[in-house]
Structures are given as C-alpha cells and as structure tokens.
Amino acid sequence: MKVVGLGPGPMGQVTLETLEVLRGAEEVLVRTSRHPCIQDLREAGVVMRFLDHLYENSEDLEETYRRIALEVVAAARERGEVVYATPGNPVVAERSVQLLLEEDVDLVILPAVSFLDAVFVALGWDPVEGMTLVEAGSLVERGASGLDPRGALLICQVDDRIMAAEVKTVLLEVYPPDHPVAVVSGQEDGGEKVEWTVLEELDRSDRFHHLASLFLPPLPGEEVYDFRRLVEVVARLRAPDGCPWDRKQTHQSLARHMVEEAHEAVEAISRGDMEHLCEELGDLLLQVVLHAQLGAEEGFFHIGDVTRGIVEKLVRRHPHVFGKDTVDTPEEVLARWERIKAAEKGVASLMDGISPGLPALLYAFKVQARAARVGFDWGMGEEVLPKLREEVEELAAALEEGDYRREEEIGDLLFTLVNISRHLRVDPEVALKKAAGKFAGRFRRMERLCEERGLKLEELSLDQMDLLWEEVKEGEGRTDSG
C-alpha cells in the first residue's frame, strides 16, 4: 500500500513522485473530495474514489477515521496494492494514517508538503522559536492541562463555530480574554487567509471550515501564572541577589509556617469560604515549593522528584483505577491502600507512619482510626460515653490525691473525647477551633458592653462577669431568632 499527500493547495504543490504514483494507479482512494487540486487531478486522468460517504452516520471523527482506515485496508488486501491519498502531508495531523500504521499491512508513505508549511509562510513564523501543534478535538477532550503558553500554539481542524467555541473555553483557562489569535484559513486556490482577532471574540463570526487553524503567539513570561512560574519565582527569591528573608530560611525555620498555612486552609474549609480557601491553598503550595527549592540547593531532591514520587505512589496504590484490579467500596480501597503501603515500607505496626509532629488532636484521631481498622474500637459513639464519665471520675480522684497524675488523666480525658468525636464523624480540631472562636467572640462582646457602660472588666467580680456572659448569650439567642 502506498500513502501519498496532496499538499495543502493546488496541484502545483503535489510532488513529482506523488503525481507519478497517482497517474500510474488503477484507482486512488481519496479521503475527501474537498481539496483544491481534485479538479486538476481529474483533468490529468487520475481515477479516484472518494471516501466522504464514511463521514455520514458516524458518532464522531474518531469513528470516521477508523472506518476509512478499515476500508483502505480491505481494498489493499483484496487487490494486493492500493494508493490512498490524504490532504497535506500524510503524517501531519492525519488520524486515518496513524490508524493504518497500527494495521498488519505493508505501508509506504511518500513525503509531501503539509498545511503547516503554508501556515508558517502566511504567518511569517519560524517554528524553531517554539510551537505546540494540537488537533482541535484532542484539545477539547483533554483540556488545558498540557498547554504551555510560553511557546506559540497552533490548533488545526477547527471545523466550525461550535468547535471554535469549545476550543475558546479551554484556552480561556490559560490565556487572557484579550490575547491575540490568528484564524488561518486555507483557500481553494491554495493560499492562506490570515484574520487576527482576540480570544474572547473568536467564535463571534462564522469563519471556520475544514481548512481552518488557529495560531496563538506566546504569552510574555511575566503574564504566565502556572506551577512552573511559581517554581521559577521561588528560585529567583532564593538567588544570591534575591530576597534577604527568603535566602535566610531553612527547612527548620519554615516548618511552623507549613503547619500554620495548613491550619488556615482547614479553617477556610470549615467556614465554607472557597475564595479564602483558594488563597490558603496557594500559601500552602508555596511552602511545598520553598522546601523543594531548599532540597535542590542542598543536592538532596528537587521539585521534579517530589511530583514524580507522589504520582508514582498514587498510581501504584490505585491498581483498581490504573490497573486491572476491582474494588466496590471505599473501605476496600482503604484496606488495599494499607496492604500496598505495608508491602512497600515493610511496616511492622499499624501505628508506624503516623507523624508525631501532627497536632495532638489529629495525632490522637489517626492513632484511634488505625486501631479501628483491625476491630479494636467501640461500636458507636454513645458506647464511649460511660468511658468519658469514668475518665472524669479518675481526674477528680487525681485532683484529691495530688498533682502527679493530673497531666495523665487530662490526657486520657481528651483522648476519650477525640474517640467520641471520631465515632460521631466530627473533626475534633475543627470542633475545638469553633468552640474557642465562639468563646473569643463572646468575650469581645463582654468587653464592648463594659466600655459602653463605663466599666472595667478587670475590676468586676466573677459573679458580675457571669451576669455579663449570660447577657451576651441571651443576645445571641435573640439575634438567631430574629
């Protein structure tokens, strides 16, 4: 089987080798009759059979290209030899040829002028400066995650306004609305029409067809705000002529900031404040990148090692997603995760791997949850309440006997409260933070009442303070009901 390209324009762009093959073929299978050189080929005596009918009744273009490839293969096996012609270059943005390469047939592909050559000439753009080429449907399917706005972007096969609108939606995740876009349209005479617009106006007029492509020039580096830019900014801050404060930091000095930022993110989650959560996640990500930059400077690891490690771990520990295993419930997922983790690390105890650097409430929560995995647990939260009363009694007894057991008994009491909260699916850290915040708010209102009444809080008796406290609480009740 021979596969040839008809180039992007009139017959003058068809190579002599290809023209000789076309004229010598008994019949040429042509993917589509929508090409500028078809009439010239007819006049030159080339016998052609077009496959446009295979576009009908197909759910999508992938199915169309697969049907085309199967018909070409069937013809080759029936005749022993066939010539298949595509627009442009057969190996540039030509899915049907890629499918042919997967088939068990002898294939000879002749080089040809591609639509890219015409586009580069029309734009005056040298691709050596950096460019990404992507098909419109593929871009819409996979989204913006793989786009790098630092280089130019060329999107081919933008067939109609609907596709243009879908492409625009993806691009707006990376580019600003006023970013320039060139619509490059192949003309029937083989020329290229270039029409410049801005991204937000892209689909406002009907200027698309099967020979239309989009060209987006690079974004200036200072206008890019992706993960790579964050890494570059942090490296600049740590450079010899960077920020004195950032250059002074160590893993140890930054550790408390990591904890603080994590807590602030959790607080935003507890309040349901998504705008604040977005900001706090950025602050938390900054801490990760700072530690990775320090690791790179020390020669231990860099940010690529961090991302590679977590990606490999996620894939390895989710064989039911990335492999052939199956699970039905979240509990099965968790159990399998722990088995894989134990096999990887050679973990001897369920308690291994829980960081002692966690906040005390979270550490207690995780310790209890690990023990519960093997059934060492209370049945329901209500069943822990007698244990809570027992711990209160033991604390009272310790207070009567002296100081030496106070810390231990208070610890047992708190540990039991964490157990109750875990059974009731309440985060003890969040619950305590809310309680403390409620207390602080009421105390501030007590201070304001004293100021309004010409009183000094520190001069009041405890009974007077209690009265103020109850007044504040009653005020909250009236506010809630009103």
Question: What's the helical proportion of residues?
Answer: 40-55%
CATH topology of the largest domain: Cobalt-precorrin-4 Transmethylase, domain 1
| CATH homologous superfamily designation of the largest domain | Tetrapyrrole methylase, N-terminal domain
Biggest sheet architecture: 5 strands, parallel
User: Which structural category fits the helices and strands?
Assistant: alpha/beta
What is the domain tally? 5
Low-confidence stretches: none
Overall, the morphology is elongated
| Overall mean confidence score, pLDDT | 88
Task: Label the CATH architecture of the largest domain.
Answer: 3-Layer(aba) Sandwich
Write down the secondary-structure element order.
Answer: EHEHEHEHEHEHEHEEEHHHHHHHHHHHH
Please list the strands of the largest sheet in the order they lie side by side: 3-2-4-1-5
Backbone CA Rg: 34 Å
Care to count the β-strands?
A: 10
